[in-house]
Write a structure and sequence with these properties.
Immunoglobulin-like, four-stranded antiparallel β-sheet, single chain, 3 domains
Length: 208
């Protein structure tokens, strides 16, 4: 009897161990869902309106209306999405910070995107500003130009320095409309933003 019981007990022990391992494996697969990831961001720095491609893996299917891409907490308003790849436009005044993707309730945080004004990455301890808009134009064109800087609560002074062109809208604001006359063959446009600190810039515009 003693020898028979010695043979039987280890068998029960093996069966119990196998069942325990199987239950543990099932529990882990249910409790640990696959998390979406970001594998690459290109480019990793740029000015406003830069197109950024974000690639990842295990992204859930999400209706475009439920998908959000944020640059330093500022939401992009232009997004395309397909098969683990997103193309998003950098929003104005985003600043430097992480890129975050929200798939409904699921949130994925990527690397830091460096926001540029001109060639300068924010945050920047000094004063920096730039003019955004086409640097070529043709007679009869009506184009929009934009001022941006790292200053807040600015007033804006736009001026045509040279060339057959005139400001037709937006004087005193960040955005200005410019009309190019029939004799336009090149010229320059300037803007000065004034808050606690003054920052100015000049854009040379050539004939297209």
């Amino acid at each position: 009897m003693n020898s028979a019981s010695l043979i039987t007990r280890p068998n029960y022990l093996i069966i119990f161990t196998l069942l325990t391992l199987q239950l543990f494996t099932i529990g882990c697969s249910e409790d640990d869902p696959i998390e979406p990831t970001i594998s690459s961001i290109e480019p990793i720095q740029g000015e406003k309106y830069t197109l950024v491609e974000i690639t990842g893996a295990d992204w859930p299917f999400t209706e475009i209306g439920e998908l959000k891409v944020l640059f330093n907490g500022i939401e992009s308003t232009s997004i395309t999405y397909s098969d683990n790849q997103i193309t998003a436009t950098v929003p104005r005044k985003a600043g430097t910070g992480p890129i975050t993707i929200e798939f409904g309730d699921q949130v994925v945080i990527g690397d830091t995107f460096s926001y540029l004004i001109g060639d300068v990455a924010l945050p920047f301890s000094g004063n920096v500003c730039d003019i955004y808009g086409p640097n070529t134009a043709s007679p009869g064109d009506q184009l929009v130009y934009e001022h941006e800087s790292n200053n807040e609560n600015e007033t804006f002074t736009w001026e045509v320095i040279s060339g057959d062109m005139q400001i037709i809208s937006g004087a005193g604001t960040e955005f200005v409309g410019v009309e190019f006359g029939s004799e336009f063959d090149g010229g320059s446009l300037s803007v000065t933003g004034t808050s606690d600190i003054e920052c100015g810039n000049v854009l040379d515009i050539s004939l297209e």
